[in-house]
Design goal:
Blueprint lengths: L10 H8 L3 H8 L7 H14 L5 H8 L4 E7 L9 H15 L3 E7 L2 H13 L5 E5 L6 H9 L3 E4 L9 E5 L1 H15 L4 E4 L6 H16 L16 H12 L7 E4 L2 H13 L9 E6 L3 H4 L5 E4 L2 H16 L8 E4 L2 E3 L11 H11 L12
Parallel strand pairs: 1-2, 1-3, 3-4, 4-5, 5-10, 6-7, 7-8, 8-9
Antiparallel strand pairs: 9-11
């Protein structure tokens, strides 16, 4: 009496089913570039339908690949509450699974430990290539992977893009679009609170903000650019400084939503109301923005789609695609709420309102929120 255990489907079974050679099936399933894309898809779909599953250790010996994507995240105080992370990881893992790949995920608290973990995964051959989120202006992860000749794709851009593949959201267009929207509402003095200067997106968004002013025919002044802010409390501090200027802005555009949430606190401390006395727009699409009063008008990112596309592009790269041919930009989506409205006060009137309501005691912002 048999055990009832179904025999494992082999490459030979797939080849017989399709009437092709075992070599063709093997090369198609392992992504060799000499196999036409239509043939590769036909073979991979047949293999899946028949229930073929490669033996990962044998495949790694044969091809030098583990069919695994590496993703090492830096989870620090600025990122721990980012809800889009779950959607991003879901997108990466779903796309990898659809291609019968796996994802090796690690998390570290510092940039140094992220680099160390990437190096360890390379040495242990735990991943064939890496997705690099939140790229820096000068990114040591890029240099490490270049030196090791390991494929990688960036979620973002960097200063030295030689040999780099990337997928990014057009944050600079969001900033110029925000300025255009506010200018159309009647604002003539609009400020920007940038993100961390170490991140390449921050400069892109400053550039987009300045382009928006130029396109709207509005003058640029350096005092319209606040200090960098990545958290609610740093956003509150910077907004406080902007709104207590002799000629304050009547509208503020933030590079990130978390800083924008701090603008509400600063406005309240100064006797102002967001959406009435000062308008506000930002970027990220964090759920918390919907629950602010009034709701935050922002540009949202489809994090699931971004993660999915990054995984697809990295697999193409690992299979031999030219990295400089794998560069894509996607637009963010405007989410209209109530924080941006026509100005009710001129800058001079706003300054007087602040003077009338400003506390004699300095506002204290906690650093740990």
């Amino acid at each position: 009496m048999g055990s009832g255990r179904q025999a494992r489907v082999t490459i030979a079974d797939v080849a017989r089913h399709l009437g092709v050679t075992k070599s063709t099936v093997s090369r198609a399933l392992n992504g060799y570039p000499d196999i036409a894309e239509g043939t590769r898809l036909r073979i991979s779909r047949a293999a899946e339908a028949l229930g073929y599953r490669p033996l990962s250790h044998a495949q790694a010996i044969r091809t030098g690949r583990t069919r695994s994507i590496g993703l090492v995240l830096q989870i620090d105080s600025e990122d721990s509450a980012r809800p889009f992370l779950a959607d991003f990881i879901a997108g990466v893992t779903q796309a990898a699974s659809d291609a019968t790949w796996t994802v090796t995920i690690a998390a570290e608290p510092t940039e140094e430990k992220v680099r160390s973990t990437v190096g360890r995964l390379i040495e242990e051959r735990k991943a064939d290539g890496f997705i690099l989120p939140r790229t820096l202006c000068s990114d040591p992860r890029v240099e490490l992977l270049r030196d090791q000749d390991v494929p990688f794709i960036m979620f973002g851009r960097t200063e030295d893009s030689r040999g780099c593949a990337w997928f990014d959201i057009q944050g600079e267009d969001a900033m110029s679009g925000a300025v255009a929207r506010l200018a159309a509402l009647g604002h003539t003095r609009i400020a920007h609170i940038p993100g961390g200067p170490q991140y390449f997106y921050s400069q892109l968004r400053i550039d987009g903000f300045q382009k928006g002013l130029s396109d709207a025919g509005l003058p640029f002044s350096p005092d319209l650019i606040g200090a960098p802010a990545m958290t609610r409390n740093s956003g509150a501090r910077v907004a406080h400084d902007l709104l207590t200027q002799a000629t304050p802005p009547t509208a503020i555009v933030c590079a990130v939503d978390r800083a924008a949430l701090g603008v509400y606190e600063a406005a309240s401390e100064l006797g102002l109301t967001v959406g009435q006395d000062v308008s506000l727009m930002a970027y990220d699409g964090l759920p918390e923005g919907a629950y602010a009063t009034p709701g935050l008008t922002t540009y949202a990112v489809d994090s699931f789609a971004a993660g999915s596309r990054l995984a697809e592009m990295l697999i193409q790269l690992i299979r031999g695609a030219d990295p400089e041919e794998l560069r894509e930009l996607a637009p963010p989506t405007l989410v209209e709420r109530g924080s941006d409205r026509p100005p009710s006060l001129t800058p001079a009137e706003l300054a007087q309102r602040v003077i009338d309501h400003h506390s004699k005691q300095p506002v204290q912002w906690e650093d740990n929120q």
